[in-house]
Design a protein that fits this description.
TIM Barrel, eight-stranded mixed sheet, about 40% helix, three-stranded parallel sheet, alpha/beta
Length: about 260
Amino acid sequence: MSLGAVLAAVIGIVSTDAAECPRKDALGTSRILSVDAKTTPRVGLKSFPQTLPLADHEVVLTFDDGPNPPTTSKVLAALAQECVRATFFLIGLHASEHPDMVKRIAREGHTIGHHTWSHPFMARIPFDKAKSEIDRGIAADEMALHGVATTTPSTPFFRFPYFESTQGQLDLLQSRGIVVFGADLWASDWNEMTPEQELKLVTERLAASGKGIILFHDPKARTAAIMPAFLRYLKDNGFRVVHLVPAGTSQKSADTR
C-alpha cells in the first residue's frame, strides 16, 4: 500500500484508482480522494495546520475565480489533453454569467467548488454579509450546474477569497459540512509576470515542496498559456495528479459527472 493510501486510511479519506486514460502517453489522473468535512474540515498548509494526505510527488490542481470562457476553455483543453482532473472554485457571479461553461467543467469530469458570490475580503465585512456571500455564491453555482438555486452545495468544497476568513465563518462552514480549502503552494499568478516567469516560479516551488495542493487562477491568460507546459513538467518529473471528490461520491459517479 502506498504512503498516500495509508494516510488516507488513517484519517478516513477514501482513495480509489482513477479512470484509465485512453492516451497511454498522457499524464493522467492517478487516483481519486474522497474528502469528508468530518475528518478534514480545513486543508492547506498556507492557511491551516493540516493538509490532504498526499504521498511524495502527488499534487492536487485547483483553479480559482472562474469561469472565464476565453481562458477557462484553454485550461480545460490542456487538462483534457493529459486526462487530468482538477477542482474549480467558482465565483457565483461568474457562474451566473457563464452557465454553459460551468456545465462544461463538470461534464469534463472536474470537481466544482465554491468561492463566494463576488470575491470580497471576507474578514472585513459583517458576519451576515459574509454568510450571504457564501450562500449566494453557492446558489448561483448550483443554478448554473443543476438549474436549482439551493444553498446546499452538491459538492461541499469552499475556498475563501484571498484566504481571508474569521473563526465565525470557519465554524459556520464546518457546521454545514463544507470543507474549507487553502493551498500548499501557488503560482502567484495574480502578480504581473510573463508566462515563462510563472512557469519557472511554480515549478521551482513544487520542486521544493515535493507535493501539495496547488493554486492557479483560470481567468489569468498567463496561467492558461503555461498549462500544457506545466502538465508536461509534472509528467517528466514523476508527479502524479490526485482528483478530489466529496465523501459519498462513488468512483463511477465521479467518472461520469
